[in-house]
Amino acid sequence: MSHLSILPTVLRDETLLASALEELQLPVVAGGCLHGFGDEQEAVILQTQLPGGLWIGWRRQADGSLALVGDLQRLGQTQSPQQLIGRITRYYATLLALRSASDPWTQSFDQASVHVTA
User: Fold this and answer.
1) Contact of 18 with 109, CB cutoff 8 Å
2) How many CB atoms are located within 10 Å of the residue 71 CB?
3) pTM
4) 97 by DSSP, 3-state: which?
């Protein structure tokens, strides 16, 4: 039997996370609940559907960070959870760096975009 797992991350900004998911061409859904085995469910602030139909999401932790919520056992049957989380985190970090670098000039530059190759 698989169930929803909650995995702490270093991610904190849900807007940047949504942008990273969009860069990975994953749909972004704000809010809702993820459903696990039986009646198990977990409220999330952001979720996405992976190729193959599995949903993962993120919930806000007490310290302000975002924790990944998902059925990692089922995810592991189709792809490496570590590789997926690594790709999302790399896109997020790149977008964070671009935002940090352009902050002093926010008024004079257009929105930045990023292309990361794996």
Assistant:
1) no
2) 20
3) 0.82
4) helix
Q: Please state, in angstroms and rounded to a whole number, the distance separating the CA atoms of residues 27 and 101.
A: 27
Q: Give the residue from 79, 54, 80 showing the smallest Cα distance to 69.
A: 54
DSSP string, 41-80: EEE-SEEEEPTTS-EEEEEE-TTS-EEEEE-HHHHHHHS-
Q: Note the pLDDT tens digit of each residue in 15-53.
A: 999 999 999 999 999 999 999 888 889 999 999 999 989
Give the CA-trace dihedral at 3, 27, 101, 113, to 10 degrees. 150
Closest CA to 23 of 83, 72, 90: 90
- Residue among 65, 82, 72, 73 nearest 16 (CA): 65
Q: What is the CA radius of gyration of the chain?
A: 15
- Please say whether the beta carbons of 24 and 92 come within 8 A: no
Contacts (Cβ under 8 Å, ≥6 apart) of 11: 17, 58, 65, 66, 89, 92
Distance of CA 65 to the CA centre of its chain: 12
